[in-house]
């Protein structure tokens, strides 16, 4: 339907509730990155609050503007209301930039300013890589089963967006439970609250009040001031020059930006599964350009279309919720209010909102894929569990070192790996699965879904692509490298050969899946 005359209202009543959920999501990211930069990398407040946060705010404003236009066009094209794609700092990529780019520079030079310069240089170059994803994005979307794309997002949602915040709730149960029960009542159960107060807002208020009463939150105006956004071309050029002088940093940069544009593609598919259709290539370019704009104004951190569109769709949001975030976050960043909120709002009060986003994404996926494809969704989630385990094992080793334990072997040491295996902890396998987890999950989800549907050539193509990526270290490796055969790459090659060749030597009637629903057309054997 061409709904060019359709009157789409940007703002709806439900945008108010959705705003608090998306605002909390962005707020947590900004608070975390500010804390790590200031207290781990010893960056002065002038850089953290005066450059990084205003730069991130400018990037968010740019992306919100683009996604507002896309939502309005989609509503007019289809002649119905749509929910705009949520947008903000990419959470997984943020941590990679913190500890894979900025951290190593700071630890090797003890120069916080240089670390920031290299960070914005990496952000700018990464934005170019992310934008180039638009070249292959539409084709990837056509050949990748929905179960693969959504399944790998469900893995991220289950582990990092759901489980980690839920653990935060249980670490501070008085605050966390007070917020959690309100989120469950108002957002998950969708029951009304007094005076129709948005559940996200009430959860933050109640959690903060409880924390203030227990002395776990404070009212502090330290860091409040005026921090206007300013372009930093000189610092950006210095950072890019350092990157080209030390090209090994690109081994971190390129794979993670490939992850970023794949994440955008998956999130667009998630929105489509919820009923809203957006052009994947345009979204990938938007995320890349937004990241580049943020880098010019001082933020190293990539932006992306967020996971969680189905949650905001379920809440009945239009576009007003992202517009409000695109106004409030910059206002808070430009006037240093993020530092004030960092002291005021406890993490346990905000964490239940993220748990809700995880629940909504997984639930929506279960409703938007064929029942038979839930096996594909499940296997796509598994690499993220391995990623979580490896991350926490590393945290454990770091904690042991910080407490003064001497003579610790490094994680990956041969003797330690053997000892872990004896205790049932399969470190090598989990490490391989964790490296490039989003791509690994997508690939295995696509293979399983394609096999279920009898699309053997499609499954073989994904196995062959995985072989090529593992040869050069995009997946199952800590960094890019020259092509090198490994057991994993040979395993993918064998799987691809089987999927391409075996169907030709098998009876055609044995290649039809009798378990597919009768109302769906059977695929052509070997497709």
From TrEMBL:
The chain crosses the membrane at residues 18-41, 47-70, 82-108, 114-140, 147-168, 174-193, 200-219, 239-262, 319-338, 344-362, 374-391, 431-452, 459-479, 485-505. Keywords: Membrane, Transmembrane, Transmembrane helix. The keyword Transmembrane helix applies. This is Putative MFS transporter, AGZA family, xanthine/uracil permease. It comes from Aliiroseovarius sediminilitoris.
């Amino acid at each position: 339907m061409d709904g060019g005359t359709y009157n789409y209202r940007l703002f709806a009543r439900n945008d108010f509730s959705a705003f608090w959920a998306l605002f909390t999501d962005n707020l947590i990211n900004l608070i975390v990155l500010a804390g790590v930069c200031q207290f781990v990398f010893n960056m002065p407040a002038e850089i953290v609050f005066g450059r990084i946060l205003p730069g991130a705010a400018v990037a968010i404003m740019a992306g919100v503007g683009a996604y507002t236009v896309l939502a309005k066009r989609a509503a007019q094209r289809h002649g119905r209301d749509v929910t705009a794609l949520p947008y903000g700092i990419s959470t997984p990529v943020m941590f990679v930039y913190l500890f894979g780019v900025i951290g190593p520079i700071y630890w090797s030079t003890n120069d916080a300013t240089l670390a920031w310069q290299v960070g914005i240089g990496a952000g700018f170059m990464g934005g170019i890589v992310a934008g180039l994803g638009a070249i292959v994005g539409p084709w990837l979307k056509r050949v990748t089963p929905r179960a693969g794309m959504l399944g790998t997002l469900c893995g991220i949602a289950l582990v990092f967006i759901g489980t980690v915040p839920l653990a935060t709730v249980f670490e501070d149960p008085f605050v966390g439970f007070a917020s959690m029960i309100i989120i469950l009542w108002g957002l998950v159960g969708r029951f009304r609250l007094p005076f129709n107060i948005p559940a996200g807002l009430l959860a933050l208020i109640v959690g903060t009040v409880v924390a203030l009463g227990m002395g776990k939150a404070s009212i502090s105006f330290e860091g409040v001031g005026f921090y206007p956004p300013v372009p930093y071309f000189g610092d950006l050029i210095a950072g890019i020059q350092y990157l080209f002088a030390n090209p090994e940093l690109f081994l971190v940069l390129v794979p993670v930006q490939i992850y970023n544009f794949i994440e955008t593609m998956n999130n667009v598919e998630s929105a489509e599964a919820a009923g809203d259709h957006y052009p994947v290539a345009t979204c990938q370019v938007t995320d890349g350009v937004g990241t580049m704009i943020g880098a010019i104004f001082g933020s190293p951190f990539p932006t992306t279309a967020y996971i969680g569109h189905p949650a905001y769709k379920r809440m009945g949001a239009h576009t007003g919720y992202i517009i409000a975030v695109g106004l409030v976050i910059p206002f808070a960043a430009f006037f240093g209010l993020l530092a004030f909120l960092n002291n005021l709002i406890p993490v346990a009060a905000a964490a239940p909102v993220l748990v809700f986003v995880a629940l909504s994404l997984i639930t929506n996926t279960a409703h938007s894929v064929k029942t038979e494809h839930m096996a594909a969704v499940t296997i796509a989630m598994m690499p993220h569990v391995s990623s979580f385990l490896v991350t926490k094992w590393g945290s454990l080793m770091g904690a042991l070192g910080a407490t003064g334990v001497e003579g610790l072997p490094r994680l990956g040491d041969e003797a330690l790996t053997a000892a872990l295996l004896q205790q049932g902890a399969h470190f090598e396998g989990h490490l391989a699965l964790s490296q490039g987890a989003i791509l690994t999950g997508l690939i295995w989800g696509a293979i399983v879904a394609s096999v279920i549907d009898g699309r053997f050539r499609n499954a073989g193509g994904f196995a062959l692509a995985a072989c090529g990526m593992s040869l050069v270290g995009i997946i199952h490796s800590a960094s890019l490298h020259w092509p090198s055969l490994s057991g994993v790459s040979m395993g993918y090659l064998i799987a691809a050969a089987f999927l391409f060749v075996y169907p030709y030597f098998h009876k055609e009637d044995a290649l039809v899946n009798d378990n597919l629903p009768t109302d769906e057309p059977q695929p052509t054997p070997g497709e």
